[in-house]
Amino acid sequence: MTGPKARITKAVIPAAGLGTRFLPATKATPKEMLPVVDKPAIQYVVEEAVSAGMTDILMVTGRNKRPLEDHFDRSFELEEALRRKNDMTRLSQVRLSNGLADIHYLRQGDPQGLGHAVLRAASHVGDEPFAVLLGDDLIDPRDVLLERMAGVRHRYGGSVVALMEVAPELTGLYGCAAVAAADEAGVVRVTDLVEKPPAGLAPSNYAVIGRYLLDPGVFDVLRRTGPGHGGEIQLTDALREMAGSGTAGPVHGVVFTGRRYDTGDRADYLRTIVRLAWDREDLGPEFRDWLQEFVGDRSPAAAGA
Predict the structure, then answer these.
(1) HEC sequence for 13-45
(2) Across the 305 residues of the chain, what is the mean pLDDT of every consecutive 10-residue run?
(3) Domain that holds residue 154
(4) Is residue 218 domain-resident?
(5) 14 within some domain
């Protein structure tokens, strides 16, 4: 079943980036494996996909990404060591990552942009609607997004992107959408898209964040999409054609107002860890007490005391 009511079970996670903003930490460790509290960032993304019913996941990788495969594989020696120690809590945590989903891996080859990475998934996805989840964006599991996007696709068909309002000075960091009203609150019809527009030229403050539900017709569009911003094949450009021409159905946007964590920037990565640790039942109480004391000791009032 490939129509708008088709259930989406396949997700593509592009993971070929070099992570240069986190050097030297990412010289030998994939950026997707950097810990966010006590799990690698990529596991949060996989868990989000699985919670939305996506059990067939393709990671489009590059060189030096073998630790991703190892993380989602069995570790018999580690499991046996934990079993001998009767450490069943950590044993269950270790086993969780290798039983989440049916995970496949495909090399991107030449890094020619997000659109190229998605196109590399064509043979695996086939003629089915599918999700694309970017690993730098973490969506708080308490805030449902993919399920809501699936509902919009069920009603309207075509493709659905997640949008978030950002400050005007930040629009140049994102693909930005021109939108028209739809028939329900929090949903818009996308009429145009621009990848990282120059200052003052964004069509709106609605930025595309890293969640997409795509009609398989996107592959034909990507095959004829030439290099765009940065000399790369941009998924934004393919969606722009789909939105303007109606090819493979309309493009709608779900306006997300929940908790999103950006792990692609060093400062935002640190803020993500603090925010997630703050809310943890096991770590939160002690961590909150320490953090409040730490900040209080360095406040202007304390410094002048």
Answers:
(1) EEECCCCHHHCCCCCCCCHHHCEECCEEHHHHH
(2) 76 90 91 93 95 95 89 91 92 88 90 91 94 93 93 93 93 91 90 89 92 96 89 92 85 94 92 95 95 86 59
(3) 10-264
(4) yes
(5) yes
